[in-house]
Specification:
Distance between the termini: 54 Å
Number of domains: 2
Number of helices: 11
Number of strands: 7
Shape: globular
Strand order of the largest sheet: 3-2-1-6-4-7-5
Helix content: 40-55%
């Protein structure tokens, strides 16, 4: 397994059927991937998962089980989330064939994650928040429903194709800021917005931070860039506090 493949993490969020976990592991093994993380699986380990893995027991044996999505992606840079729904929420949406080379490129700099949601519901909106891009798999309008393991197989296949000898190097030299670093930036920014009384002017008054999160995720900041922004925010706070302004 190449270093890039070792850095590509498949994350299944709340999978409900152990057979799908096993089939996903088999799909990964077929395409040279072995890093599997399960977030709150309903049943795992399970005999059906082992049976459906059919030769990919090593992927199940080293799979990591965690309680939260934040734990699953804590050390990751680039994060992509699969979706089957049309969303108008300012996410960058990529076709799976377009997304695969980007994921492979980013894996040269450190761990990356591809997120898959539960069988019935997919990923919830809050589970999409850490993502830099959404992946859409083209399907027939007549029957757009795609099995979880099938979705893993398609994404893994495209990653294998994109990771051949012609795979290009990433344009950046530094890995993206991790989810925890971005969360610290968002908390700091929200604190400053409250201090300067900058309010959401939309009709509902609830979307400002969501919009800010989305465009900063699209900007794909590295750690140095997040530090610069936090330095600016701290400077704003320091200029206001001596005057007693809060």
């Amino acid at each position: 397994m190449s270093n890039r493949a070792a850095n590509i993490r498949i994350v299944l969020v709340e999978p409900s059927h152990p057979g799908n976990i096993g089939a996903a592991a088999r799909a990964m093994k077929n395409m040279g991937l072995e890093s599997l993380v399960l977030v709150r699986p309903r049943q795992f380990p399970h005999a059906e998962a082992t049976a459906r893995a059919s030769g990919a027991e090593s992927v199940l044996a080293q799979a990591t089980v965690v309680d939260t999505l934040a734990q699953a992606i804590a050390d990751c840079g680039f994060i992509a989330a699969t979706t089957s729904r049309f969303r108008d929420q300012n996410f960058r949406v990529l076709d799976v064939r377009e997304a695969a080379p980007r994921i492979v490129q980013e894996s040269a700099l450190g761990p990356v994650a591809v997120l898959f949601g539960a069988e019935r519901t997919g990923l919830r909106n809050e589970e999409l928040e850490p993502s830099h891009a959404l992946i859409r798999i083209p399907v027939s309008d007549a029957y757009p429903s795609l099995n979880l393991a099938m979705a893993v197989q398609i994404v893994a296949y495209e990653l294998l194709r994109a990771g051949g000898e012609g795979a290009s190097a990433p344009a950046r030299s530094a890995a993206l800021a991790g989810p925890e670093e971005m969360e610290r930036l968002y908390r700091h920014l929200q604190e400053v917005l409250e201090e300067i009384d900058f309010r959401d002017r939309t009709q509902s008054g609830t979307h400002l931070m969501s919009r800010i999160r989305r465009f900063l995720q699209r900007a794909e900041l590295d750690q140095n860039e997040t530090n610069i922004l936090r330095g600016v925010l701290t400077a704003v706070q320091n200029r206001r506090r001596p005057a007693g302004l809060r």
